Amino acid sequence: MRIAHISDTHITSESAYKGYAYDLIANEINNGDFDFVIHTGDVTNQGLREEYERATYELKKIQKPLVVIPGNHDVRNVGYALFEEFIGPLNGVFEFDDGVVIWVDSTIPDLSDGRVGSQKFKWLRERLKEYSDRRFKIVAAHHHLVPLPDTGRERNVLFNAGDVLDLLLRYDVNLYTCGHKHVPNVYRVEDLVVDNAGCTSCRKTRKGDVNSYNIVTLHDDGRVEVRIRRVTGEERAKEHRPVRPKLFIPKGKRLLRIVQVSESNVSERAYFRRKVLENAIRTINERLKPDVVVHCGDVVDMGIERYYERAYEFYERIKAEKLVVPGHNDITYLGYDLFSEYFGQPGIKEINGVTFIPVLSAQYETPIGVVGRMGQKKLGELLEEYRDSFTVVVMHHNIVPIPRSREVGFLEDAGDVLRVITIGEANLVLTGHGGNAFGIKVEKTPIVNAGSISWELHRNPYGNSFNLIDIYPDMMVAFEVQATWGSGRLVGIWKIKSPFKSPSPPRPSP
Ligand SMILES: [Fe+2]
Ligand SMILES: [Fe+2]
Questions:
Q1: What total of structural domains would you count in the chain?
Q2: 320-364 residue pLDDT tens
Q3: Distance of CA 33 from the midpoint of ligand 2 (Å)
Q4: Tens digit of pLDDT for each residue in 153-174?
Q5: Do residue 226 and residue 262 come from a single domain?
Q6: Which residues form the Calcineurin-like phosphoesterase domain (predicted)?
Q7: In this structure, are 231 and 318 located in the same domain?
Q8: How far is the CA of 70 from the centre of ligand 2 (A)?
């Protein structure tokens, strides 16, 4: 099965419209061996009637079955009414042989941001249930699901991208296709292939790129291949073979045990649960006995001395080695100086052959994080320098969306940071924002977020918790440990390839 994936044609009625790129691609599609075509939105530029009239004419040039999804530009000026009139339903289902495309309208009138609202979310879940026996399940929407590189400031991701991502993974969706940022990109997120089309025919490409479309091939054995094809003829392909089976039994001795903590928010406020934190520290010291405890930030609720003093008392009780990176709460008021005074500037730490690389992402007086271009470059260099080691990147802010939390601007350069991490093949990333435990593997890198260990204002149905991550020679397993009860539940289990590439094998932990 071969699918042509076009997007962001931004058709206008003016002569400035880059119709030649569109014609070239439409021609290739007509002459190519494609079963159908998906257009992931921004068909028109302003959602105007004359644009829809022109778009109807242009879309007819494609002589293959065509699925068209609305984009934020299509719904401008109440264009969603015209979309239904000229093009078709805003949400729908397209069935093919042993597969299905479920498309969902992710637009919000007059905003560039995206959302799959609660009714549509239920509708999507119902469709995924209905078609759960199909071999290939494709979900299509306009907005991207995972932060993209080269987009400037990362924004306009779906507000509830974490929930949508979680839903797609639960229902074993094979492919998510989208457009919107005019950047062609392919990521493997667990067994889901996230296929972003670039810009098929408008002038607004990024970083001097040219127009392009993606070619998706679904193989009988379950492999999914996405080929980015630019109008210059240049092609880049990526193929994913689903991992089966998904559960592994560890072989060999455990190499490292990490306890990952976040958002303790030590304070005198009622939301800080002192007893829960004390209990968790007892569980860590007496039962779990990790090699290292990593705190992913928001140690205190506010950057004042009294809170730092208390937090220091708590963390002094932890017997294992500690690595603490600041969150945005930690550097409010005098926090920037207090953090260094009490916990020291986080630096590179090597334990049992594992290299922990802390990254500072918090800024003064805002929950929005940034690594920055210089920070990205430094991180890339460190990942290169420690390529032969097992690298763990530690930071506060999220680089992948977290269920139950709103995904707007949490890390403004998340897309570029995620690229640095995947290219550098970091072996693990630990984050701690969003108040919910979550773990997914993007490309070769598991990314694990910790919920809140002792702050009442969290988003975790499991309650206050922290993560326990065990690394074995061939696999890694992450559990979430309930902070009060000490019970655990699986967050993720990942096969890893030869984690320790260094000639001298690391000392196994007792
Ligand atoms: Fe667009
Ligand atoms: Fe868009």
A1: 2
A2: 999 999 999 999 999 999 999 999 999 999 999 899 999 999 998
A3: 28
A4: 777 789 999 999 999 999 999 9
A5: no
A6: 1-184, 274-433
A7: no
A8: 9
For ligand 1, the distance from its centroid to the CA atom of residue 180, given in whole angstroms, is 4
Residue 504 belongs to a domain: no
Q: CB of 101 within 8 A of CB of 140?
A: yes
Whether residue 256 is predicted with pLDDT greater than 90 in this model: the reply is yes
For the segment 88-128, what is each residue's pLDDT rounded down to a tens digit? Answer: 999 999 999 999 999 999 999 999 999 999 999 999 999 99
Average pLDDT value over all residues in the chain: 94
Q: Dump pLDDT digits (tens) for 176-188.
A: 999 999 999 999 9
CA–centroid distance, 73 to ligand 1, in Å, is 7
CA–centroid distance, residue 351 to ligand 1 (Å): 46
Cα of 238 vs centre of ligand 1, distance in Å, is: 23
- Do residues 312 and 339 touch, judged by C-beta distance below 8 A? no
Query: From ligand 1's centre to the CA of 422, what distance in Å?
Result: 25
Please, which residues have CB within 8 angstroms of residue 417's CB and are 6 or more apart in sequence?
A: 147, 359, 371, 376, 379, 399, 411
Ligand 2: distance of its center to the CA of 126 in Å?
26
Tokens 């269920």 found at: 403
Same domain? For 50 and 177 the reply is yes
CA of 41 to the centre of ligand 2 (A): 7
229 with 287, same domain: the answer is: no
Distance 8 CA to ligand 1 centre (A): 5
Please check whether residue 510 lies inside any domain of the structure: no
The verdict on 271 and 327 lying in the same domain is yes
Q: What ligand is nearest to the CA atom of residue 43?
A: 1
* CA of 72 relative to ligand 2 center, distance in Å: 5
Question: Is 503 a residue whose pLDDT tops 50?
Answer: no
Q: How far is the CA of 139 from the centre of ligand 1 (A)?
A: 19
Q: How far is the CA of 447 from the centre of ligand 2 (A)?
A: 27
Report d(CA 74, CA 305) in Å as an integer.
52
Instruction: Say whether both 293 and 411 belong to one domain.
Output: yes
The Å distance, Cα 182 to ligand 1 centre, comes to: 6
- Answer yes or no: is 251 within a domain: no
For 49-82, what is each residue's pLDDT tens digit?
999 999 999 999 999 999 999 999 999 999 999 9
Ligand that comes closest to the CA of residue 112: 2
Residues 232, 264: one domain? no
- CA–centroid distance, residue 10 to ligand 2 (Å): 9
Query: Residue 221, Cβ neighbours under 10 Å: how many?
Result: 7
* Chosen domain end from 210, 240, 270: 240
| Nearest ligand to residue 203 Cα | 1
Strand ordering across the sheet containing 256-261: 321-324, 292-295, 256-261, 465-471, 475-482, 488-495
451 Cα distance to chain centroid: 16
C-alpha triplet 193, 195, 196: angle, nearest 5°: 150
Predicted confidence at residue 504, as pLDDT, reads 47
Ligand 1 center to residue 198 CA distance, Å?
Answer: 9
The contacts of residue 503 (CB under 8 Å, 6+ apart) are: none
Query: Is 225 in the same domain as 267?
Result: no
- Asked whether residue 56 is domain-assigned, the answer is yes
| Residue 128, domain extent | 2-240
pLDDT in tens, 369-416: 999 999 999 999 999 999 999 999 999 999 999 999 887 558 999 999
pLDDT of residue 16: 61
Residue 23 sits at φ, ψ, to 5 deg, of: -60, -40
